[in-house]
Amino acid sequence: MKPSLSEHPQPDDAAAKQAVRPVICYPIDALPPADLTAYRAARDGWTRLDTVIVPPRDAASFSVPAGCFFRIVSIEGPQVGDLNLWNAHDIGERFYSGKTRALHGTHLSTGDRLWSNLPYLRPMATITEDTLDWYGFDEWGGSVHDVIGTRCDPNTNKLLSGGDYHHCCHSNLTRALADAQGLPLAAAEAHVHDVLNVFMCTGFTRDTGQYFMKASPVRPGDFLEFFAEIDLIGALSACPGGDCSSAHSSDAAACHPLRIDIYQPISPPRGWQSPQRNSYAGGHGR
Ligand SMILES: [Zn+2]
User: What is the Å distance from ligand 1's center to 50 Cα?
Assistant: First the structure.
């Protein structure tokens, strides 16, 4: 955090330096935009392959074949979810929250891709509908579906409170992946990664730049819909923070289940091909 009083004096040209206009780090104009018309047309006549209920303060895993859709649905009350995604054939390829943030911004919505880690760096999923897109950014700079948080975890909780809490999203995701893959907990934990915070309303305070949360605007019936670009395994935790209006990493908040619906279209979206892994050959200058 920046000190409220700097230890070092401003240079004479401080105002001019601060007035320099920012430039976008990663312009994505060269990337083909998601063809939402084609994706949405593929929903006509789709059939539901599976439904998974995520219990409160717990996680569940699910599988989505490439070319299918999945929806994360609010059902009984306001609840945020922490989402992890892996390549179903190689869990070493997983969702890369940081690069997704760099490419699409702090909070995701319709048309954004969920990119995989290096060296794969390809779209794992595309957001095809977001019933909370009306929220935009509020007066504090808050918005929903962030890729700026990490996930609540027992180690940070231990650090800050001294206590043990075993149903943080990190632990929930670890158990879900361990059960799905038949892995020991420690092996599964190594594959759990920074999440997409589904339905969570977050931002950074303007004065101190600290990560904040506020009550999610999600209501039963709201959903976030994805198209699976590759064969996926997912895990979703119903965060112990509930709507994240006050606390997490404890049993204090009211929590609700989440539902995941998986749909198979009659045929894939027109013109769609599953993306190949990134074409950089890996020379790294040698
Ligand atoms: Zn959580």
Answer: 25
